[in-house]
Write a structure and sequence with these properties.
Elements lengths: L8 E5 L6 H11 L4 E2 L3 E2 L14 E2 L2 H9 L3 E7 L2 E6 H9 L4 E4 L2 H10 L5 E5 L3 H10 L5 H15 L7 E4 L3 H16 L13
Parallel strand pairs: 1-7, 1-8, 2-7, 3-4, 8-9
Antiparallel strand pairs: 3-6, 5-6
Helix pairs in contact: 1-7
Guanosine-5'-monophosphate binds next to strand 5, strand 6 and helix 4.
Length: about 200
């Protein structure tokens, strides 16, 4: 298949516990050519999380050094921790023609979108707020205090939905992954992303 000279970037956001990581894992299983950007964070790893796979886990001084040295495309604070995306890591992939998927919260998504306005923004919601709470608890990884902080942040985040291009309901992982795959496919068919097909040799 013909490939665009440069890869495309796409963003997925949504409240903590809605199932973004689970849906993204299914998307990657079906689109192994996609690159998932592994973020940097100062949060403590959850049981089962692997450094370099789920996140690059760093301490606060190292994260603040990365901010000072301009290494991050965007960064934000979430629930008392820093999270950020390495500009170099994703630009390397995009330059190689590889499509890149970011799982970032709403502040970071705005920063990226302001710099790269053609980046499609997808927001994942739960079937209901009660289901979100059940999933956060069912994950069994966070203390009650952390869960409460994440639920109150979720209410704030839901107000940002109207900035997003696409809304995905994570009722089943299968349905949500299908929606993400369909959106990525349609985005890839945009004339701007296919201009390379029209170039005369
Ligand atoms: P996020 O990455 O958005 O914080 P996770 O992917 O960690 O969320 O999912 C939170 C919890 O919800 C996990 O225990 C996961 O197995 C579960 N989960 C995710 N999607 C679904 C779904 N469609 N139906 C039921 N449970 C789900
Ligand atoms: P968690 O601690 O549940 O893994 O992630 C908390 C929030 O941080 C989620 O909303 C997730 O999308 C967001 N997040 C993860 N990586 C990044 C990042 O690199 N930048 C920003 N801005 N948010 C991120």
């Amino acid at each position: 298949m013909n490939k665009n000279a440069r890869g495309s970037l796409a963003i997925i956001s949504g409240p903590s516990g809605v199932g973004k990581s689970t849906v993204i894992a299914e998307v990657l299983r079906r689109r192994p050519d996609l690159y998932f950007s592994v973020s940097f964070t100062t949060r403590t790893p959850r049981p089962g999380e692997v450094n370099g796979v789920n996140y690059h886990f760093v301490d606060v001084p190292e994260f603040e050094r990365m901010i000072r040295d301009g290494e991050l495309l965007e960064h934000a604070q979430y629930s008392g921790n820093y999270y950020g995306t390495s500009a170099k890591l994703i630009d390397e992939k995009l330059e190689q023609g590889i499509d890149v998927l970011l799982d970032i919260e709403v502040v970071g998504s705005k920063i990226v979108h302001d710099q790269r306005p053609d980046t499609p923004l997808m927001f994942v919601i739960p079937p209901s707020f009660e289901v979100l709470e059940q999933r956060l608890r069912g994950r069994n990884t966070d203390s009650e205090e952390v869960i409460q902080r994440r639920l109150s942040r979720a209410k704030e985040e839901l107000k940002e939905i109207y900035r997003y291009d696409y809304l995905i309901v994570n009722d089943t992982v299968e349905n949500a992954a299908e929606d993400v795959l369909a959106i990525l496919r349609a985005e890839g068919c945009r004339t701007a992303n296919r201009a390379y097909l029209l170039k005369e040799e």
